[in-house]
Amino acid sequence: MSESASDRVWPPGAATAIGSLPGTDPAEASRFVLGELPELPYLAELPARGPGAEMIGRSGALLVDLPVDIVSTGWRLAARPGRDLRRARDLLARDLDALEQAASGYAGALKIQAAGPWTLAAALELPSGHRAVSDHGAVRELASSLAEGLRQHLAEVRTRVPGARVVLQLDEPSIGAVRDGRVPTPSGYGTVPAVPRPVLLERLSAVLAAGEPGVRVVHDCGPGAPISLFREAGADAVSVDVQILGAGDLDELAEAVDGGMSLWAGVVPATDAQIDSADGYALIARLWSELGFDESQTRMAPTIVPTPACGLAGATPEYARRATTVVREIALRLVEGHS
User: Fold this and answer.
1) Exposed/middle/buried for 7, CB within 10 Å: 0-12, 13-18, 19+?
2) Less crowded by CB within 10 Å, the N or C end of the chain?
3) pLDDT < 70: residue spans in the chain
């Protein structure tokens, strides 16, 4: 059950970002995030450092008793830990060291991100070369391993930043492809059969349960995000690109928000574009009206967290800074209640 807006650990007027940034310096990234997004900072991901720093390698590093390594086609489940896994874990440890130093004395919401079970299963290969998502037993084991790894990861973050209330964000950009049977087979001539909704729900719920109630978020920046599934799985907030929402999405989103979910509204493009906080505020206000809510309601600012539409790793450093400034300005406009 989602918490009410008044119970949320991030305050009205909070803004955040999805997780990835350009650059290779974790100390600089941590200082930037803590300084620019003080109400809802996050453990930054820096994919430019190479394999192991990107979403799948980083999330694979969290798995318990399921080692991964790199093959020519990507990350694959392996028989034993190797150099690739050691490197991914080392990169994560450096990020945590940098966060601990930058967040000394910090108290409040602090977000960490990981690939959700279905995105991870769609990306990781089995030793046979097939995607893990094609094997229901493998997915079950993968979800269990990821949940345990996330529990350990969350506990470590809490130890390193004692004043933090750690928010868990699961990134599920591939869940639509899994749901619709669009994940390709190794030959490229076929696709993995669609996964039924009850199975999608069971695995996602199991991994979300690693986080605390009230601080669990699912991010999906693709079209047709299964918002009702995220809500039923136990998410307290849904993070979507609001500019690609369709009519059917609006019905699911309105029901979710009415039921107490927070909307993390992706209103700023993830790569270099002309952006303005007034335009971003107007986009949110229009969406709020389309959802059937009164713009003058005091619920809008506590319910909505402005974000970029997706991760900022593909942006220039200058644009990433500008995008972060703009989402903070939009959040302030929400609190002040004007465009």
Assistant:
1) exposed
2) N
3) 1-7, 295-297, 338-339
